[in-house]
Amino acid sequence: MLPLRPQGDFASLATPSSPAFRRFPGRYLRGGAAPTSFRIMTQDDDGFELWLGRIRSGGSATAGGARQRRLLERMARSGGNPRRLRSVVAEAPRPRSGRFNGRGRGAAVAASIPRSSGWSFDDVTGARVRMRRVTVKARIVKAAGKAGGAAAHLRYLERDGTTRDGTPGKLFSTFSDEADRDAFLERGADDCHQFRFIVAPEDGGKLEELKPFTRDLMARAEQDLGTTLDWVAIEHHDTGHPHVHIVVRGVTEDGKTLNIAGDYIAHGIRHRASEIMTREIGMQSEHEVARQLGQEVDAERLTRLDQALLGRAEDGLVDLSQAMGRTGLGEDYRQLLIGRARTLERMGLAEAGLPLNWRLSPGLRQTLDEMGRRGDIIRTLHAAMTKDVAERSPQLYRIRSMDDEPVVGRIVARGLVDEQADRRYLIVDGIDGHSHYADIGEAEGSFPIGSIVRLSSSHIEPRTVDRTVAEVAAGNGGHYSVDAHLRHDPSASEAFAQAHVRRLEAIRRATGGVERLSDGSWTIASDHLGRVRAYEAQQAERRPVIIETLSPVGIERQLSAEAPTWLDRRLAGEESSPLAPHGYGLDVAAALRQRQQWLVEQGLAYVQGEDVVLRRGALDLLRRRELLRVAGQLSDELSLAFVEHRDGERITGIYRKTVDTLGGRYALVERSKEFSLVPWRPMLERQIGREVSGTLSRGAVDWTIGRGRGLGR
């Protein structure tokens, strides 16, 4: 027998003299040949002979599995690495990690990439080294009909404070340091999908910038995939690990759909990125890795040391009393694991038993994950509040949960909880004196810094509209229709009933909880309200917070604004959330006093004893002043006459855009030679460029779209 050359810290293998076996040992050991004998040589030269049959052949599967486990346990006790042997003899082919792993561009390249740990010996120093590590997160996004989502994703990537100096980030591409976002979106408007990558080199902080690294990576990917790629990217330095976001169009250079093999996405890109980082700053030494692991011993999060402890544990018990030989980082690595186990013991997540034995908590992984997320949130909160001009005490930080009461305050910061899935967060300086972190999920909107909002938890209970549908269906043989609704409630309008239809359509598309029949009626199940709760819970997971914009600007711009402001509504009693005597509550109280003084000077309020009282109609007067001022500016811009509508008048025309003012949001409805500004409603969001009509009534409009399709109020 001739021993194979050892690789890294793995045990040497000695095989039979068969040439075919020496060339293709995996083929035989995975079950492609008759039973074979071979010898395993450990670091102590205490060899022992093994007889392995074909995997899962001969005898029961249970007996074969027990034999393999005994082999791996004996190898580990002798100082070898059982994972090395397991990868050859003990495992069936692993399940594919995703669709099309074996198909698509890059499959052949991915198949040639080694899956080992990458440790080797430096020919000069003899020290163990490995390639630099790079984390890659990938997501394939269906882009058809979602151009707005792609635009929002890129806008968020360009948000403030992502560069080293805190300025807004800029997209770059192969040849440009300032790529045109709109042009990229226009080119990809008809693409079926796009690829989104987050590439985070472990040692990215050692590079002055990530642009050259990213361009080298994409050039290598183009070689592997055999096509030129249309991509944009942006650097982010606003977290502990510098990283780059890359968005790639899902088309080849000749306009065909680009399909990338799943194995290349999972392994190929990371391997190429690792090669580039290693070329730039050299191999990573064993000493460097040990230093990095040493920083994890006391960390309050899930670490690589925890993963190693969990991997070595049997029924929750981990034994660190025996030497590890050359496994991992040798004796130093064992000491790191012992130190981490003692840290977990102090945290109440492990219990000491026999010397150097610990029983790990069943919820260890989940608890450490939650601690890590909470730590990240606290650091994010502290960074935002420290950067803000009005620093707040860390004792007043709050992480919002679903059961919390509504909070009002100004937006201090915004960002992405999950940069790959576009899940967002807001940091709000509340008038209750606390600084709040809120995971807002996939909530849509721009949420300007400094704007004043109200955050409240999403509801999971059925709404009045759902209960009405259930009542109508109960009296109509389990079916709902507009006609049945109008018979059930003669005072209801058709537009009002249509709002119930839209609600049913939303539930149908999301969960299939209701069925629409060919005649336009709906089959409503007897447990309809239970299905609505399931739908609302699903929506709450995607958007856990309801965000209401109370003012698009901060209190500083409201002090002397000739428009109805949030401060005015508080003075009028329309906003009654209590103000704390510290923090932002104190700031708002001071702003209210200044606004009162301005209103008195303008004759819109008067002093009565110790109080300042708004005159009747003051807010309406301010609202009309602002409306006429904004309308005059738009009239000059559009070269159209402005027409002001009164209650009861019919409004028709093309909905062109929304107009935001301090007094609220308006819809600009245009006709041939004139335009109107009327109260905006959310159902108009997707109707830009379409004909609308409705009747103004008490500050709201009953809208219809196109030919008689009802929108309700």
Q: What general outline do the C-alpha atoms trace?
A: globular
Strand order of the largest sheet: 26-29-28-27-30-31-32
**Uncertain stretches of 5 or more adjacent residues:** 1-62, 86-101, 706-713
What portion of residues is helical? 25-40%
Query: How many distinct helices?
Result: 20
Radius of gyration: 33 Å
Sheet-strand content, in percent, reads 15-25%
Distance between the termini: 85 Å
Oligomer: single chain
Mean pLDDT, as a whole number? 80
Structural class: alpha+beta
- Biggest sheet statistics: 7 strands, mixed
Number of strands: 32
What does this entry look like structurally?
- The protein has 713 residues and is an alpha+beta fold.
- The protein is 35% helix and 23% strand.
- The chain has 20 helices and 32 strands.
- The strands form eight sheets. It has a seven-stranded mixed sheet. The chain has a six-stranded mixed sheet with strand order 15-18-17-16-19-23. Strands 1-2-3-4 form a four-stranded antiparallel sheet, covered by helices on one side.
- The relative contact order is 0.06.
- Residues 1-62, 86-101 and 706-713 have low confidence and may be disordered.
